[in-house]
Design brief:
single chain, mainly alpha, Arp2/3 complex 21 kDa subunit ARPC3, about 0% strand, about 75% helix
């Protein structure tokens, strides 16, 4: 019996905290440009595979904690996470039907939408508009989707 089947909310919380720590680790500038949005990937995975656990509340709390951790506009990531989690939750049966490689393309488009929402909120709040490198984490996040999905699925399998 896996830890997920015994305590699914505890498992989701621990995985979310690990993803938050991965988002906060300082990296050199070039690696920081391509750092995937680990916490959003985890939120999308839980919204896709276990929609009752990884719902909108989980996305809002994860986004708010990322806002507080990074010192950004409070609610910027929370709003974006909730929008992405809503779309994943709304289409989760259709997305789960696709093979994992096509799921990675859908994840990449959702990550681009997330970056666009952040871009829009930054523009509305008067923050500096960054260059083309803002869109790179969507590509690395899509590349990371397959191993992350496989790793989390391995720990959630019922035995």
């Amino acid at each position: 019996m896996s830890a997920y089947t015994r305590h699914p909310m505890l498992f989701a919380t621990v995985v979310g905290l690990i993803a938050l720590m991965l988002a906060a680790i300082p990296l050199p500038h070039l690696l920081d440009l391509i750092r995937p949005d680990f916490l959003l990937l985890v939120v999308m995975w839980f919204a896709l595979m276990t929609p009752r656990i990884g719902g909108l509340t989980y996305a809002w709390i994860a986004g708010l904690s990322l806002d507080a951790f990074r010192g950004l506009v409070l609610g910027e990531n929370a709003f974006s996470f909730v929008v992405i989690a809503y779309l994943v939750h709304y289409f989760y049966l259709r997305i789960r039907m696709f093979p994992e490689t096509q799921q990675a393309l859908i994840v990449m488009s959702l990550l681009w939408l997330y970056q666009f929402l952040l871009f829009w909120i930054d523009g509305m709040t008067g923050h500096a508009i960054t260059g083309w490198a803002r869109w790179l984490p969507a590509i690395t996040g899509a590349a990371l989707w397959l191993p992350l999905s496989g790793l989390l699925a391995r720990y959630t399998q019922r035995s």
